[in-house]
Structure formats: structure tokens, C-alpha cells
TrEMBL record:
It is a multi-pass membrane protein. This is SusC/RagA family TonB-linked outer membrane protein. Keywords: Cell outer membrane, Membrane, Transmembrane, Transmembrane beta strand, Transport. The keyword Transmembrane helix does not apply.
């Protein structure tokens, strides 16, 4: 009994509960440590703990990532409850970098990181939408607003003409392939101009964080695939504790945000007949009287109140040795054009297991099925064109169907009935994709380990298209059926040695290893025509005319073998140094350049750690300078470009029989290699007033050399050009990011996030070529110019001075002009406006991009408001081209120009008469049709309410309402200034664009 009493007097048991301001029910996983000892414990799932304190006195330290550390004196107490406050400093966050992680405060490269709570809110179909407008230096442009539509992502500009410009995506350590299993859509089916997003198979709700590697120091570790930047996606993992069941979902409606204002039936009849009477057409083209109100063709093919819904269910948990997460997802989005939709079912399984202290293993696996329903789109013309094109140009005085119930077509316009196109040209895509990786890591010592990663990605896709007899194409061909099937796969094997060591004032973090990845794509297509009826669609191609069958197939592959190494060194927690090198061998490179070498070096200085800084540390709480240099490559040059290959040649007659032939497709270039990008970056990371305000600033210059161009070669070789590494492009700019914790006290919190980005692009070398004039959309060609000293693919056309008026001096020009015609600038003053008078009309690179996000929290309510803008970008509006230079006088057009057209009674100097549209030749690319695509947009407003937690029902629950794309301020007259059906953020052409939605959602989330 005496010994027992002595023991009790020397050791005190302390119990208590740890909570937060937001969750008074308990915070699990908090570390509690007795200061200056190795005695500690962790709070359980209810936030409770118990710890024995020898001697009955001491100081307890409460700590957890994301919360401010607290110390409390035991002072002979037996119960100590603690409330932790959120740590407002973001500089100690751990961010993912290539082949490892690092504290944000120790970064030497330019890396932008988004955690789950920072993602874009609302209806999110693909991961790219999560980061749109959220990161400086990262431009995200929607190529198509159709469900699951493709997106262009450019990081710090564009550095290539003929090679890929998309960043490398890495999901849980597995480099992703951007190629799709099936591309194209058949000769007569104008499928969307751009493919579905390569990431459309990933459930955005499964993503925990996204890191974007921007400078060469950060991307050089990915070598020949790092020139366009790298986007690292990390999916969620389970956390220690009992199993949690979580659900979040939303449902809502979408409406067309901006419906193009076209001539209605009455305006159409009056204005078109007036143009014809003024000499703009034949009397046989006059619009006849009609009954009723006519037809709003876009209204007929648009889907009002299109539905959208998403459901995510996950189970997660773990213990000291194992953590797991299982998630299931269903997403369904109806398109704003009838008979278009995107549906996805997904399943993910993530597991990490510690076999013992020396061996860890884990798996990240995802499998999904998606179904697309396509509506005709693209850049084709007339009866082959898409639904929106036809809806904009069709005669509004006509009815949808005649008295017999058949679709009405115009006798004056070579355009199909828009409703017939939407119903009669049907496309269905089915995609099955499974990807993931498994790893095993063995620790020789706690500091030294070897990790083996095995990964794979297999996508099987089939697209079925059928064009029936209700359409012009289908009627002429007796039905057209096309089936396209493809498989795209890649396989990864990599072994990595990792070493971490800290002693005295030194800290090392090193990685070295070898990695190989193989990509294989195979495709098969078949087409049949002349079917007895439309009943079988694509289900029995044998019923078609065998003489009209067309089949095709292909298979391509490429392989990468790489060696990599990186060393991070820190001295005295102040001075940072990073060096890396990667050697990439690619089957795409020429025989004389099989391997490329990509080094980088970066340094950082934490000035706030210096003693002399202490005098201002109350104001400037953190300050770090960064500088980096490195080289990266772009191996997206296509397969087999360096060797001689053969393609199908003309059909020949031999022994009275037709025979197929082959012919050389290109001349070999054994010196062909990657495009090289060298980048220099200077950056500052800062924090003010205890990091209540923090962010970063970067200035960079990025030079691309050895750019791929087709140079002329002697015709004696049998070819006229050869793909060669020559030419260069420079990108430079300034990036600014700021987070401000405006209010962080009590029940009211207000956080503002601001980004600002500038970009300057310049072609520096064309290998002796004076200029390249390129680009086409339908009947519009020679749209852009590539020339040294100006931005890549600048719009190239005619400057419009106004409109020829009755009193003008017509002797000053040799052109066939009349009052009411467009007046172009005669640049060289020779009296004739022709191709020699074209000039640069701007480009699609914005002068700057900005966004502001605000989150205001009061008690249980959160209000999120996100505004974004783009300034100085130009876009070619092909809808305006069709208005000013119509294929026929009876085509419908934008209303405003025709309503205000020049007449003797209305001598407009802005809009022509539209009588002599082709008298000067159709100068389609001009300062009218190349429009300013600058805009300011209220992108998202979201209001959330968090229910007080009730342990008997749920541990957390939230309801919310969201509005997206609520309004846009812009001078752009087309569908939307933020969209690009041409499929590239740096060269934007708007034509036949899928309408952009305004979306309203209601959602709920809870955790059991």
C-alpha cells in the first residue's frame, strides 16, 4: 500500500477532450506530447485522450497539421480540455512534387498547389474545371461546352507549332496519356471539333489535391515531357479511425447563357427582300409570305432546363497499419442541344498498408464506364454541317415539318433541317477505362528506402454513328453507318531509391531511379451505306451495299526509358538548393538522338530566418527568394516521324485487275529529336502579419529551340519538305498570387484569394522561312500568320476603315466598290486592296488573366463568390463571317448588323449594305470579324449551411445552393468569349460552338 501511494503521488493521469471552434464534438488524431519527453498519445475518434504525467506536473503540447500548436501547464489538474484554432499559415503545407513531397516553405521551384477546399465549386465534370482561373500562369479554355467536352490547358504560354502543347498529367504517380482510343467521326458525321477531355474518366470528387509544376526546376524531373508543364493529381486516401461513410451530391438545371440574336421570321422577310430589291439577289430568291410566327430554329434544337446530377459515396478508415478508401460515383449531364449527354459510373479503391516497419505497400485503382451521346458539330459546311450551324442559318419562315409530317428543307439554302440533324445523325460512344498503380517500398534504414511502382492504364472505346434517311446525307446514301473501335493502353515500371537525412544544420532529401513506360494504341473502323431501311442502324453492316463498304485499321506504339536523380539540400533551415537531371530515351527520336538530357538547378533563401530580420518580423512574417534554371523537352512529335514509313497509294491495274499499292509517306530524318525549352525563373514567397496575408510573385522567361518545322528540300528526293528541328519561340510573363485572411475571429471569417498573370509570346526563329500563313475553318482559310518577332499564329487579314459613302471619291480606288460596301485599308497605297494589304490583327494570347475568390463564413453559413476575367485576347468570330459573307442571300444571320445596315436613308459607317458582299472578294479575316474576347464573369456563387453535428445521426452535414456563369460583361458578339471550338487556347476560332450553360444547383453532403 505504501509503494502504491508513492507511485500515485509521482504519476498523474490526465484526461480530456480536444475540439475545434467549428466542431465541438471532438477532433480525432491530435498529437499530445509531454514537453521534453517521449511520452505522448493521440486523441481517439471522439477527440478524447488520456495520458500519464510522471511527477504530476509538466507542459502538454497539443498539435495537428492544419491547426495552431498549443501548450498548457498541467498545474496539478486531472482534466484538461483543449480547443484548437485553425492554423492560418499555409507555408508549412506539404505539397506534391515530381517523385516526392516537400514542405511548401522549402520549395525552390515554381509550384502552384490547390487543396480540396480551394477547388472551383459547382457542377464539375472533369478535373481541369477544378483549377480553371485558380492558379497564376495556368490558362484553361473550354474547347466545347458539350457534356464532358474537351479543354485546353496551357502553362506559361505555348512553345510549339507542330507538337503537342498540353501539359503532362500525373495521377497518383502514373503519367497519363492524352491520346484517345478513338479519334475522328467518319466522313459524313461532323462530330465535335475537339475530343472529350482525356481526364473525363476521373471523378473530380476523388481528388485530394492538384499541384502544377511550372518552372524548369520543377518539371525537369519529367524530362522530355516537361516542356509544357506538369499537373500532378493526388486522389484521396483513408484516415486513421473507425470507418466513415460520406456522401455528397447535387442536382440542378442548365439553360443557355447567351442565345445568339438572329433575325426572326418577320425581320428576315423584310430585310432579305429589301437586300434583294437593292440588287443583292434574284427575284426568285425573294421570301414569300408565311403563316404563323415562323420558327426559332435554335429554340427548337436547344434543350431547355437540361438536367445535371452527381452522386458520390465513399467509405474510408484505417488503423496504425492500414488505411483504405472505397468510392463510387455517378454523374449524368444532359446537353443543351437535344440528344447530347454524358454519363459516367466510377469506382475507386485506394489502400496503404504497413506490413512492418521495413515494408510498406499500397494500391490506387480506378475503373469507370462512360457513355456519350453526340450531336453533330464541327467545322463542316452546308448540309454536312452541325446542328448549331444549321439552326443559325436556316430560313426562320419555314415550319419544322410539313403537312405530311416530313421535315421541311429550304429550296433556297443548302442546309439541312436542324431538327432532322439532331434526330437523324446519332452518335453514341461507350468507354471502359481502368487505370492505377501498385507499389512496394522497403526501408533498409529509416532514412533509406527502395520503392517499386507498377502502373497501367487501359481504355477501350467504341463509337457508333448512324445517319438516317430523314437527313439530306442519309437520304442520298441510303443510310450511313459507322463503327469505330479503339484501345489505348500504357504500362509503367519504375524503381526509385529515396534517402532522407537531417543532422546538425544539414538536411538532405534525394531520389534516384529508372523508369520505363510503353504506349500502345490500336484502332479499327468500318462504314456501310445503302441499307434496306434505317431499322438496323449500326447493328448489321452486312445489310449495306458491299461495294460501298469502307474499312480501316491502325496500330502505333512508342516507348520511353528514363534515368532520373534529384537532390534537395537545406543548410541551417535558411539556404535551399535543388538539383535534378533526367535522361530520356524515346523510340520517337531519331537514331542519332535517342537520348536527351534535361538538367535543372534552383536555390532558395529564407530571409526571415536571418537574425537581422527580427526587427521587422512582426510585419513581414516570412520572406523567401527563389531562383531556378533548367531545360525540359517536348517529345509529342508523333510516332515514326524520324523513319521512312509507307501509306496507301493509288489503285493500279495489273493483269486486268485492280490492285492496291503503297507509297513512301515521308523521308527519314535520323537527327530528329525533341523540342528543347530552357527556362529561367525568379520568385518571391511572402507572408505578412503572421501570415494573415501571404502569396507569391514570379517572373520567368521560357525559350523553346529545336522547334519542329517542315523545311523545303530538293524535289529530286521525291518529297517537297522534311520535318526538321529548327525554329524557336519565347514566352515570358509575371505571375502574382495573394491570399488574405481579412477576418479570422470568432464566428466571422473572410478569406480572399487573388491571382494575376501576364504573358508575352514571340516567335524568335523560323529557320530561314519568311512567314507561314495557316489556319482554316470551313470556307475561311489563311487565317493566321507565323512570323519572327510577333506572337504565334497572329490573326492576319484586312483593316476595316468604315463604309463607303455616297459622297466619297471612288476614283481613289481601282476596286469594284459602291456606296454601302466595306472600306478596307489600302496598306501599300497602290489603289487595290489585295493579299499584299493584309496586316496583323491581334492574337489569342491574353495580355493578362485575373480572378478573385471570396469566402465569407458566419456561424454555420458560408458564402463563396468567384469572379474571373481575361483582357486582350482576340478570337475570330466565324459567325460574323457568315453574316458579312453569306454563302447565299437567303441564309439567316446575326440580327444587329442587318437591322442597322447601310442604306441611302441610313448611311451607317459601321455596317455595310450587304448587297455586294463578294464584289471585292470575300476578305473574311478582317478587323470586324476578329473580335476582342476580353470579359469579366461572375463565375460562381455558392451559399452553404453546416448543420450542428449530432453524433447519433451524422458527424457532419451541409446543404448548399450554387449558381454558375451568372453574368458576363464583354464586347464579344458571339456565343461566349471564353470558349474555343478550334481546340487550342492560343489560336481561337468560334464557329458552330456548343452553347454555354448557366447552371443552378442544390446539393447536400454528410458523413456518418
Amino acid at each position: 500500500m505504501v509503494l502504491s501511494n508513492v507511485s500515485y503521488a509521482q504519476q498523474r493521469s490526465i484526461k480530456g477532450k480536444v475540439t475545434t471552434e467549428d466542431d465541438p464534438l471532438g477532433l480525432p488524431g491530435v498529437n499530445i506530447l509531454l514537453k521534453n519527453s517521449n511520452i505522448g498519445t493521440v486523441t481517439d475518434i471522439d477527440g478524447t485522450y488520456s495520458i500519464n504525467v510522471p511527477g504530476g506536473n509538466g507542459i502538454l503540447i497539443f498539435s495537428m497539421i492544419g491547426y495552431e500548436k498549443q501548450e498548457v501547464d498541467v498545474s496539478n489538474r486531472s482534466i484538461i480540455n483543449m480547443t484548437l484554432s485553425e492554423d492560418i499559415s499555409a507555408l508549412e503545407e506539404v505539397v506534391v512534387v515530381g517523385y516526392g513531397t516537400v514542405k511548401k516553405s522549402d520549395l525552390t521551384g515554381s509550384v502552384a498547389a490547390l487543396k480540396k477546399e480551394d477547388f472551383n465549386q459547382g457542377a464539375i465534370a472533369t478535373p481541369e474545371q477544378l483549377l480553371a482561373g485558380k492558379m497564376p500562369g495556368v490558362q484553361v479554355v473550354q474547347n466545347s461546352a458539350e457534356p464532358g467536352g474537351g479543354m485546353s490547358v496551357n502553362i506559361r504560354g505555348v512553345g510549339s507549332i507542330n507538337s503537342g502543347t498540353s501539359p503532362l498529367y500525373v495521377i497518383d504517380g502514373l503519367p497519363f496519356s492524352n491520346s484517345t482510343a478513338v479519334s475522328g467521326a467518319g466522313e459524313r458525321f461532323p462530330a465535335p471539333r475537339t475530343e472529350r477531355s482525356p481526364l473525363s474518366s476521373i471523378n473530380p470528387a476523388d481528388i485530394e489535391s492538384i499541384e502544377v509544376l511550372k518552372d524548369a526546376s520543377a518539371t525537369a524531373i519529367y524530362g522530355a515531357r516537361g516542356a509544357n508543364g506538369v499537373i500532378l493529381i493526388t486522389t484521396r486516401n483513408g484516415q486513421k479511425g473507425k470507418m466513415k461513410v460520406s456522401y455528397d451530391g447535387y442536382a440542378g438545371v442548365q439553360n443557355v447563357a447567351n442565345k445568339i440574336d438572329l433575325l426572326d421570321a418577320g425581320e428576315y422577310k423584310t430585310i432579305i427582300n429589301s437586300i434583294i430589291e437593292s440588287g443583292g439577289g434574284s427575284n426568285t430568291d425573294k421570301v414569300d409570305d408565311f403563316t404563323g410566327d415562323g420558327t426559332d430554329w435554335l429554340g427548337e434544337v436547344y434543350n431547355p432546363n437540361a438536367g445535371i446530377q452527381s452522386h458520390n459515396l465513399s467509405l474510408s478508415g484505417g488503423n496504425e497499419t492500414t488505411s483504405y478508401l472505397i468510392s463510387m460515383n455517378y454523374f449524368n449531364q444532359d446537353g443543351l442541344v437535344m440528344n447530347s449527354s454524358f454519363e459516367r459510373y466510377g469506382l475507386r479503391f485506394n489502400l496503404d498498408h504497413k506490413v512492418d516497419e521495413k515494408f510498406h505497400t499500397g494500391i490506387n485503382l480506378s475503373s469507370n464506364y462512360s457513355k456519350d451521346q453526340f450531336t453533330p458539330g464541327g467545322f463542316q459546311l452546308n448540309e454536312h454541317a452541325g446542328v448549331v450551324f444549321a439552326g443559325m442559318q436556316m430560313d426562320p419562315t419555314l415550319d419544322v415539318r410539313d403537312a405530311n409530317g416530313d421535315y421541311v428543307i429550304s429550296q433556297h439554302i443548302n442546309v439541312d433541317n436542324p431538327v432532322a440533324l439532331a434526330n437523324g445523325k446519332r452518335g453514341i460512344g461507350n468507354t471502359y477505362r481502368t487505370f492505377g498503380s501498385i507499389y512496394g517500398e522497403y526501408f533498409f534504414t529509416p532514412e533509406f528506402s527502395f520503392r517499386l511502382n507498377l502502373g497501367g492504364d487501359v481504355s477501350n472505346q467504341q463509337r457508333d454513328y448512324y445517319i438516317d434517311r430523314t437527313t439530306i446525307d442519309g437520304l442520298a446514301a441510303g443510310g450511313i453507318a459507322t463503327i469505330m473501335h479503339g484501345t489505348a493502353s500504357n504500362y509503367l515500371v519504375e524503381g526509385l531509391f529515396n534517402y532522407k537525412k537531417a543532422f546538425d544544420k544539414h538536411s538532405f532529401n534525394a531520389v534516384a531511379g529508372v523508369t520505363t513506360q510503353k504506349f500502345i494504341t490500336s484502332r479499327f473502323s468500318s462504314e456501310g451505306r445503302g441499307f434496306p431501311s434505317d431499322a438496323t442502324e449500326t447493328f448489321n453492316l452486312d445489310l449495306g451495299n458491299p461495294n460501298l463498304n469502307v474499312i480501316g485499321s491502325s496500330k502505333v506504339d512508342n516507348t520511353l526509358l528514363s534515368y532520373l536523380a534529384r537532390l534537395n539540400y537545406t543548410f541551417n533551415s535558411k539556404y535551399l538548393l535543388t538539383g535534378s537531371i533526367r535522361a530520356d530515351g524515346s523510340s520517337r527520336f531519331g537514331e542519332n538522338n535517342k537520348f536527351g538530357y534535361f538538367p535543372s538547378v534552383a536555390a532558395g533563401w529564407k530571409i526571415h530566418e536571418e537574425d537581422f530580420f527580427s526587427s521587422i518580423e512582426q510585419t513581414v512574417s516570412s520572406l523567401k527568394f527563389r531562383a531556378s534554371w533548367g531545360r525540359t523537352g517536348n517529345q509529342e512529335i508523333g510516332n515514326y516521324q524520324s523513319i521512312s514509313t509507307f501509306s496507301g497509294g493509288p489503285t493500279v491495274v495489273y493483269d486486268d485487275q485492280q490492285r492496291s499499292s503503297t507509297q513512301p509517306a515521308r523521308i527519314a530524318n535520323q537527327d530528329l529529336k525533341w523540342e528543347t525549352t530552357e527556362q529561367l525563373d525568379f520568385g518571391i514567397d511572402y507572408g505578412l502579419w503572421a501570415d494573415r496575408l501571404y502569396g507569391s510573385m514570379d517572373w520567368y522567361v521560357k525559350n523553346t529551340t529545336d522547334m519542329l518545322l517542315s523545311l523545303p528540300i530538293p524535289r529530286s528526293t521525291g518529297f517537297t519538305s522534311q520535318l526538321t528541328n529548327i525554329g524557336g519561340i519565347k514566352n515570358s510573363g509575371f505571375e502574382f498570387a495573394l491570399t488574405s485572411r481579412n477576418i479570422n475571429s470568432g464566428k466571422l471569417k473572410w478569406v480572399t484569394n487573388l491571382i494575376f498573370t501576364t504573358l508575352k509570346n514571340e516567335v524568335t526563329d523560323l529557320g530561314g522561312i519568311d512567314r507561314i500563313v495557316t489556319g482554316s475553318a470551313g470556307a475561311t482559310s489563311q487565317i493566321a500568320i507565323i512570323e519572327e518577332g510577333i506572337p504565334l499564329e497572329s490573326f492576319y487579314g484586312y483593316e476595316v476603315l468604315g463604309i463607303w459613302q455616297t459622297g466619297d471619291d471612288f476614283n481613289a480606288t481601282n476596286d469594284n466598290v459602291k456606296p454601302g460596301d466595306i472600306k478596307y485599308l489600302d496598306l501599300n497605297g497602290d489603289g487595290t486592296v489585295n493579299t499584299d494589304d493584309r496586316t496583323v490583327l491581334g492574337n489569342s494570347f491574353p495580355k493578362f488573366i485575373w480572378s478573385v475568390g471570396n469566402t465569407v463564413s458566419y456561424k454555420n453559413f458560408d458564402l463563396y463568390v468567384f469572379v474571373e476575367g481575361v483582357e486582350g485576347a482576340k478570337m475570330l468570330n466565324n459567325g460574323l463571317i457568315d453574316t458579312y459573307f453569306p454563302a447565299g442571300v437567303r441564309r439567316n444571320r446575326y440580327a444587329e448588323p442587318l437591322q442597322n445596315r447601310w442604306t441611302p436613308e441610313n448611311p451607317s459607317n459601321e455596317f455595310p449594305s450587304f448587297v455586294n458582299t463578294s464584289s471585292q472578294g470575300e476578305k473574311r479575316v478582317n478587323s470586324i470579324t476578329v473580335e476582342d474576347a476580353s470579359y469579366l464573369r461572375l463565375n460562381t456563387v455558392k451559399l452553404s449551411y453546416h448543420f450542428p453535428a449530432n453524433r447519433g445521426i451524422f458527424s457532419a452535414a451541409t446543404i448548399n445552393v450554387t449558381g454558375q456563369n451568372l453574368f458576363t460583361i464583354t464586347n464579344y458578339s458571339g456565343m461566349d468569349p471564353a470558349i474555343n471550338p478550334n481546340g487550342g487556347a492560343n489560336f481561337r476560332i468560334d464557329w458552330n460552338a456548343f452553347p454555354v450553360s448557366r447552371t443552378f444547383l442544390a446539393g447536400i453532403s454528410f458523413t456518418l
